[in-house]
Design the sequence.
């Protein structure tokens, strides 16, 4: 059974290759989408090549709705988007994938039923297909090579759906082990290095010593150090001092 998560239906219109249908299923499930509708697939349905390509997302193919025509596939939808990379000469709102999925998320949250149309691999959606949609999703591709593979377009749209509906961390630095160094850890490291460098005569001439010490402390505080990093840097300095004393 499909999940209970509110989401759009992805409608594959007259898809040609079973492999692309299977890859589209994988792309959908990567981002938690499992409402697939298939309209008049060229090679019939079910398609063993689609099953082979879907890998762990075969459930989506088992539960996919099969329709003979587009009207039946989107008959229950309250808002329909058509994906296309080229101008159609039709007066409709045109969304980027990001804006479209944010808009879709709001419509679904308000109780709407949303469908997204994806055209066949060879030439994409026909004008008659796009005319059934309320809005267009235009992917900003290279104008000299605007053709997107079916599964690529599904993947891109699914990613934007995920961004619109789930917390996506823009940047993070996971620690493999241990924990981040505290301000006290870093201050003690700075003291250690300042003391030893003072003994070595590094802060010269005297008129520049204060500024050099400030710059060094700023260097330590600017670095994202773990406690293991701090311990290693203490150890390096201790070993260098021992080596000098042995010499």
Sequence:
């Amino acid at each position: 059974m499909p999940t209970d998560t509110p989401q759009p239906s992805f409608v594959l219109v007259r898809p040609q290759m079973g492999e692309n249908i299977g890859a589209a299923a994988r792309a959908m499930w990567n981002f938690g989408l499992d409402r697939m509708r298939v309209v008049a697939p060229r090679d019939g349905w079910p398609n063993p090549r689609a099953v082979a390509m879907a890998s762990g997302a075969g459930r989506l193919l088992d539960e996919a709705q099969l329709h003979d025509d587009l009207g039946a596939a989107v008959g229950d939808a309250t808002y329909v988007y058509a994906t296309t990379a080229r101008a159609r000469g039709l007066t409709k709102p045109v969304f980027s994938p990001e804006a479209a999925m944010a808009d879709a998320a709001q419509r679904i949250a308000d109780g709407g039923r949303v469908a997204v149309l994806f055209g066949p691999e060879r030439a994409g959606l026909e004008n008659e297909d796009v005319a059934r949609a309320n809005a267009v999703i235009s992917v900003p591709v290279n104008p000299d090579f605007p053709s997107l593979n079916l599964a690529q377009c599904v993947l891109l749209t699914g990613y934007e759906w995920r961004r619109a509906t789930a917390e996506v961390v823009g940047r993070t630095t996971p620690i493999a082990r241990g924990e981040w160094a505290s301000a006290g850890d870093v201050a003690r490291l700075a003291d250690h290095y300042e003391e030893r460098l003072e003994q070595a005569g590094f802060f010269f001439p005297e008129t520049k010593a204060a500024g050099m010490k400030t710059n060094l402390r700023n260097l330590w505080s600017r670095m994202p150090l773990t406690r293991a990093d701090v311990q290693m840097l203490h150890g390096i300095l201790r070993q260098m001092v021992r080596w000098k004393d042995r010499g």
